[in-house]
Specification:
Blueprint (H helix, E strand, L loop, with lengths): L19 H31 L16 H12 L8 H24 L8 H29 L16 H16 L4 H29 L7 H31 L14 H12 L8 H30 L1
Subcellular location: Mitochondrion inner membrane
Keywords: Membrane, Mitochondrion, Mitochondrion inner membrane, Repeat, Transmembrane, Transmembrane helix, Transport
Family: Belongs to the mitochondrial carrier (TC 2.A.29) family.
Length: 315
């Protein structure tokens, strides 16, 4: 009897759906785990992006000159706790935003929406917009707290909140419910671009590595390589939006609850380019990469491993 061997290339198994609340929890848990390790870099990134706000290059004192020097300045001035400023708000933001974002994206994968031309980009952008809108108040408070420091090394407006809960209450009393979503017009495009780049490149890179059969079908190295490629793509596309978002969130408001420095996303973009040049949009590029690359690798890797384990347990 003659037998024939199947020589067709192995293709990645299509996505399977998890229970939506479980998918939300796994996405939130993965990104919160990554946030604990990368929050000091987020503090440094925020300070660098606010340094020299609307001032020409060379006309202001530079307290922060790079990632390592900035980490040293913050640590020596504010102590080790200063390097984890805003951690509670950052964890709340990561849990809400990424729980919604990753959960929504995995649902679109399971329904086959990402298989259409441009489906991964559109689904990633939509998932990012939804997550950014829901979690915007947490990002607002996080930015305020991470910018706060002693006068000697202060940059940007100082809101002087006592802690996370008092920050929420202070903003609510001064500006009402809508005040908690101030800056969302900068956050939504920021996360839409970053999410589309991250999820689309992660999915494509993972499929490519899987088809190449470099590792076993359930090896975490597949997700690791895909996450590294994704981290580079996110950093390049997201930095200008990140700068604008930080500026919009941290600006002071007047008695009419309007921003004193910027009217919105486009106004901030134009003012930064006019006063600080195009490179002003890339302030903090190094800490953005140093933070986003490991954060993307950790969060995508943890998320993928947790989902694979949950799917294996389910089936």
């Amino acid at each position: 009897m003659i037998t024939y061997m199947n020589t067709a290339p192995i293709t990645p198994v299509g996505p399977r759906a998890l229970w939506p609340p479980l998918d939300f929890m796994l996405g939130a848990l993965a990104c919160c785990g990554a946030c604990v390790f990368t929050n000091p870099l987020e503090v440094v990134k925020t300070r660098l992006q606010l340094q020299g706000e609307l001032q020409a290059r060379g006309s202001y004192q530079r307290h922060y000159r790079g990632v390592l020097q900035a980490l040293w300045v913050v640590g020596s001035t504010d102590g080790l706790r200063g390097l984890q400023k805003g951690l509670t708000a950052a964890l709340l933001y990561q849990g809400l935003m990424n729980g919604v974002r990753l959960g929504f994206y995995s649902y679109t994968e399971a329904t086959g929406l990402t298989d259409a031309p441009g489906g991964s980009l559109i689904s990633g952008a939509a998932a990012g917009a939804l997550g950014a809108f829901i979690a915007s108040p947490a990002y607002l408070v996080k930015t305020h707290l991470q910018a706060q420091t002693v006068a000697a090394i202060a940059v940007g407006h100082q809101h002087n909140h006592q802690d996370v809960s008092s920050a929420f209450m202070s903003i609510y009393r001064r500006e009402g419910v809508m005040g908690l979503w101030r800056g969302v017009n900068g956050a939504v495009p920021r996360v839409m671009v970053g999410s589309a780049a991250q999820l689309a490149t992660f999915s494509s890179a993972k499929d490519w590595v899987t088809c190449a059969q470099w590792f076993g079908p359930h090896s975490c190295l597949t997700a690791l390589i895909a996450a590294m490629i994704s981290g580079v793509a996110v950093t390049i596309t997201m930095t200008p939006f990140d700068v604008i978002s930080t500026r919009l969130y941290n600006q002071p408001v007047d008695e009419f609850k309007r921003g004193r420095l910027y009217c919105g996303f486009v106004d901030c973009l134009m003012k930064v380019c006019a006063t600080e040049g195009i490179m002003g949009l890339y302030k903090g590029m190094t800490p953005v990469f140093v933070r986003l690359a490991p954060h993307t690798v950790l969060s995508m890797l943890i998320w993928d491993v947790l989902r694979q384990r949950a799917l294996l347990y389910r089936h």
